[in-house]
Structure formats: C-alpha cells, structure tokens
C-alpha cells in the first residue's frame, strides 16, 4: 500500500523557487492500477520520482507498506519514458542486469518473464535490434524480475505509434492481471488513462496538484468504443476543461 | 570504406542489425518482427556488399602495397633506380632472410618488443588507472588533471636529454620514455570514456540497487570501453614511434639499432628491412587492438569497423 500525505516539493531554480507539487494526498491499495494525467509541467514525473526514491528531498510523508521511502530500490520498479537498456548487453542479460544468469533460479525467471512480455526468441538480441515497443517490454521484464511491490511507469508508451501503443496497453494489463503488481502509470493520453486505470488522477499545474480522482468502474477487458467508456472519457475530459485548456494533453480520438 | 558505411546506413538500422547478427551467428529474428526489420533493404546497399565480397576484406588493403612493390622491382630490374638508394625488393628480401638465418633478427625484434611492450604496459596501465580515478571523482580531477594537461603539452623528445642525464642511455630510460608517451592517450581517453557514462543509465543502476562495484564494472567500464580502446590504439602507435627514437639514441640491439647501424655502413637494404619490420609490427599490434574492438564493441549500433 502506498500512502502519500501532504506532499510538497519545491525546486530551487535560478529564477526563484518553483513549487512542483503542492499538498498531494493519495492512497493506493495493493494491486491497484492508478493512472495519472495532466498537462506538461504539472509534476507527474516529479511525483513518480519521489515515489521511486530517486528524489528524496521533499516535505510531507510518502510511505510504501508503512515505511517511509528513503531511496531507490528494487521494491519499486521504474519504467522511464525511454527503455534505458544497457546497449552492450543482450536482452536476457539486460533483464538480469546485476543478477547472474548462471543462477538457475534467475535464468528460469528471466525466461518466464520474457515469455510474459512476449519476447521469447529474442533472448540473445541486442537492444539496437529491437523496436521501441520491444525495448520497453524488456525494461518492464527487468523491473518485474525484482518482484517489485509497485511498478512506476512514466509515459512508457509515449514514444510509440498508436498501433504499438494499444498493443502494449493490452500487454501491460495482461501483466498486471497475472502479477497483481500495484501500478502507477503516468500518461498524456486521455484514452490511455481511461483504458488502463481503475482510478484516474487528474493533475493541474502551477503549482502541481491533484484536481480530482475519478473511479473508472468498467470491467476488463475494456472496449474503447463502448458507450460507458466514452461517457467516462467525457467525464475526465470535463475535469480538464473546467480549468485548463492546454494543448499538452492529447484528447484526440486515439484509436 | 566510406561508401560502404554510407550505403549500409541508408539501408536502415534493421538491415545493419540483421547483417551483424548473422555475422555473430547468435541471433535469430523470428516471426513477423523479423520480416518487418529485414524488409527495407534497398537494392543499392546489397550491391555494394556483394561487390565487397568478391575480394575478402583483409586482402583489400594489400592491393596498393603489392602494386608499388611490383613497379619497384620492375624499375630496379630495368636499372631505372639507383641500387644504393633504393635496392630492389628481392635484395631486401635476401637481406631479410640472411638476418633471419643468423638469428640476428630474432634478437633485435625481441629486444625491441621488450622495450615497447614494457613501456606500453607501464604507461598504459598508469594512464588507465589515473584516467579512471580522475574520471570517477570531481575532486581528483580538480587536483590531478591540470598538472597532467600541463605536462602533456611538453614535447616528449625535449625530455630525452634529461632522461639521459638522469638514467643514462640504458634500458630504463628507454622504457620510461616510451611509457611516458604511452600514458597520455590512454589517460585522456579513459577519462573521457568514464565521463561519457549515461546519467540516465546511472539512474537505472540506482533503481536496480547495483552495488558500487557493480556500477563500476557493469556501467562505467562498458561505457568507457570504446574510448579506452581508442586510447590504447593511439598509445600503441606512440610506443612504436618512441621505440625507434629511443633505439636510435643509443643501443646495441633492437630494430631501431639495426637501422642506425646499417646506415653507418650504408647497407640500404638492411635499413629497408628495419623500416619494413616497424611497419609490420605496428600494423600487427594495431590489428590486435582492432580485434578486441570487434569482439567487445559489437553491440554498438554505430560500429561498422
Ligand atoms: N530538476 C528540476 N529543477 C527545477 N525545476 C524542475 C526540475 N524538475 C522539474 N522541475 C519543474 O517542476 C515542474 C514539474 O515538472 P515535471 O517534470 O514533474 O512535469 P511533468 O508533469 O512530468 O511534465 P511532462 O508531462 O512534460 O513530463 C515543472 O514546472 C518543472 O519546470
Ligand atoms: Mg514528465
């Protein structure tokens, strides 16, 4: 369980302090899938970095399973916008990273995970031989190998084309339903937020804060064209239009 | 060379990847993804590759030297070039064989090898270590780097008299001179290499809980390796150069001595044997480093060597 209470984050910029996050309160239950959406600069990445432990300078309290997050660690899997693979390692070695494939336990798990992200047959391929979507799936497998309590994904499919992206969304839901890992998923894409999340957190900038949290009460697998999906999508969109009309949020029809 | 890399670049990363993958023999690209990756190979790119295959890569570089040798031999046979200035290749070969037969050559090569190898190892290892240290720590960089940079600007040949005054003309001053020259390229490029490690990958290693040692061996070293190898290659070149200088300033063995000694007796053919040996050994050691590059840097998408 993730508990965020009165979280404030201020950056000291040359032009003066920038309040990136103000009074964030949020509780995410174990195994929950929560998506975050908001215009550029509303602090989504900042929030994720704090939960990941990659940024430890903040006010307030951020606890994972009752313990304050003191630094990065394998209990918090991070997927960045870019796959960030080691270019000199093959796919299987990238997944293993600092764990040894000579350990039969590790080798077996790596094989299983590559199957889970549908990359079997590519164990010996190098990152340069992979498409963006495949590389991102390697990064997901790498995080899952450590059995994280929570998976933090910062616009992981932002650089992918619409077709690959929708495929990856289904792969991710599949992984989530099988691994039951808590998911925090940041996106610019309204459809993606509604398609994936059990809850959608809508954020606003200057200073970054949570505008509203909407329940998406639709069973999986969801249909993007169904009437109830469109209804909820319109609801989330409405949350934006009350305050923000920035072009940063992609409200296009998607696919 | 350049038209080849340009062509393979235009063929798209997929084509290059498939080609290198089949070269390393390890990677299968199954299913639809393989078809998609293999698809955009233009006919032009394939043509260039086929033309290259007509002649094995290693033979390509020998075309020009062989042509020059043939013309030279012919010129000598026709009496177009002076025998004392430019002895025929066949006469140089004869001189070479007699040196081999007498065991002289092995002795000279052995002596040179110990000097160049010793100097290179000493200087290269020091450069590697110091480069790693200055690369890893800002504080060490601020302390050491300015001094090293200042020393680097001193022409090496200018310190030879000092070395002779201090250590005489013995083996020690020779090896020290070579190691000093070999130090700088490795130091400089190791430093650059360490600093080229990706900050974003560093974040990944923190998130994955790499130990400090794992960070050094699994992130910093692989990131630095391309630069380190480049430094080593330059350093090997400098080592041979300084070896020649050191052996000509006073020695009783070595390829440089062989050349110097033959000059005194106007044995032009032996001078040529010495020069040829330098060319050969230099080329061989360079190829050795290239081989390492091929083996260790095959993962680089830009690597086309
Ligand atoms: N290292 C930093 N130093 C100073 N200010 C920063 C830093 N990182 C982020 N900020 C500021 O904090 C705010 C939030 O940034 P953040 O990257 O979290 O936004 P975001 O919601 O992820 O945006 P995007 O959707 O474009 O990725 C921005 O105003 C940004 O300028
Ligand atoms: Mg961001």
From TrEMBL, chain A:
CDD domains: ABC_NrtD_SsuB_transporters (cd03293). Transmembrane segments: none annotated. It holds the Pfam family ABC_tran. Residues 2-230 form the ABC transporter domain. InterPro entries: AAA+_ATPase (IPR003593), ABC_transporter-like_ATP-bd (IPR003439), ABC_transporter-like_CS (IPR017871), ABC_transporter_ATP-bind (IPR050166), P-loop_NTPase (IPR027417). The keyword Transport applies. One of its GO terms (molecular function) is ATP binding. Gene3D superfamilies: P-loop containing nucleotide triphosphate hydrolases (3.40.50.300). Keywords: ATP-binding, Nucleotide-binding, Transport. PANTHER family: ALIPHATIC SULFONATES IMPORT ATP-BINDING PROTEIN SSUB, TAURINE IMPORT ATP-BINDING PROTEIN-RELATED. This is ABC transporter ATP-binding protein.
UniProtKB/TrEMBL annotation, chain B:
GO terms for biological process: alkanesulfonate transmembrane transport. InterPro entries: MetI-like (IPR000515), MetI-like_sf (IPR035906). Pfam families: BPD_transp_1. The chain crosses the membrane at residues 120-139, 151-169, 175-194, 240-259, 265-285. It is a multi-pass membrane protein. It is found in: Cell membrane. Belongs to the binding-protein-dependent transport system permease family. This is ABC transporter permease. It comes from Cohnella xylanilytica.
């Amino acid at each position: 369980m993730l508990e965020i209470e009165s979280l404030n984050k201020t950056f000291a910029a040359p032009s003066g302090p920038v309040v990136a996050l103000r009074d964030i309160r949020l509780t995410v239950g174990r195994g929950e899938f929560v998506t975050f959406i908001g215009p550029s600069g509303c602090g989504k990445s900042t929030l994720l970095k704090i939960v990941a432990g990659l940024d430890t300078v903040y006010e307030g309290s951020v606890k994972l399973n009752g313990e304050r997050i003191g630094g990065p660690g394998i209990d918090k899997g991070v997927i960045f916008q870019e796959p960030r693979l080691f270019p000199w390692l093959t796919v299987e070695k990238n997944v293993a990273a600092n764990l040894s494939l000579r350990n039969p336990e590790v080798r077996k798990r790596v094989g299983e995970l590559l199957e889970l992200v549908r990359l079997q047959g590519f164990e010996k391929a190098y990152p340069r031989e992979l498409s963006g979507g495949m590389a991102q799936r390697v990064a997901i497998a790498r995080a899952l190998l450590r059995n994280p309590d929570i998976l933090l994904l910062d616009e992981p499919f932002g650089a992918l084309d619409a077709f690959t992206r929708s495929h990856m969304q289904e792969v991710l839901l599949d992984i989530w339903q099988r691994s039951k890992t808590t998911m925090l998923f940041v996106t610019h894409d309204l459809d993606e937020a509604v398609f994936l999340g059990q809850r959608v957190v809508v954020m606003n900038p200057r200073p970054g804060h949570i505008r509203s949290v909407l329940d998406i009460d639709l069973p999986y697998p969801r249909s993007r064209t169904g009437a109830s999906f469109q209804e909820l999508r319109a609801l989330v969109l409405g949350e934006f239009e009350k305050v923000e009309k920035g072009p940063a949020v992609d409200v296009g029809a998607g696919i | 060379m350049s038209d080849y890399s340009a062509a393979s670049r235009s063929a798209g990363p997929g084509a290059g990847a498939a080609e290198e993958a089949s070269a390393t023999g390890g990677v299968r690209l199954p299913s639809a993804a393989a078809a998609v990756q293999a698809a955009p190979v233009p006919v032009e790119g394939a043509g260039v590759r086929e033309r290259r295959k007509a002649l094995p890569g290693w033979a390509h570089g020998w075309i020009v030297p062989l042509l020059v040798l043939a013309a030279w031999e012919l010129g000598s046979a026709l009496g177009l070039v002076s025998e004392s200035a430019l002895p025929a290749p066949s006469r140089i070969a004869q001189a070479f064989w007699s040196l081999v037969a007498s065991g002289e050559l092995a002795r000279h090569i052995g002596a040179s090898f110990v000097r160049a190898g010793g100097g290179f190892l000493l200087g290269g290892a020091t450069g590697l270590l110091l480069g790693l240290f200055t690369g890893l720590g800002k504080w060490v960089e601020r302390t050491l780097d300015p001094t090293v940079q200042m020393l680097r600007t001193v022409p090496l040949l200018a310190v030879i008299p000092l070395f002779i005054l201090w250590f005489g003309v013995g083996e020690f001053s020779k090896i020290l001179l070579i190691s000093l020259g070999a130090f700088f390229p490795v130091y400089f490029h190791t430093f650059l290499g360490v600093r080229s490690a990706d900050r974003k990958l560093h974040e990944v290693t923190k998130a994955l809980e790499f130990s400090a040692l794992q960070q050094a061996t699994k992130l910093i070293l692989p990131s630095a390796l391309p630069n380190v190898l480049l430094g080593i290659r330059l350093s090997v070149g400098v080592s041979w150069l300084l070896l020649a200088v050191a052996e000509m300033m006073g020695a009783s063995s070595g390829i440089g001595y062989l050349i110097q000694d033959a000059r005194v007796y106007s044995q032009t053919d032996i001078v040529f044997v010495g020069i040829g040996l330098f060319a050969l050994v230099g080329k061989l050691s360079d190829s050795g480093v290239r081989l390492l590059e091929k083996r260790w840097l095959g993962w680089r998408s830009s690597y086309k060597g």
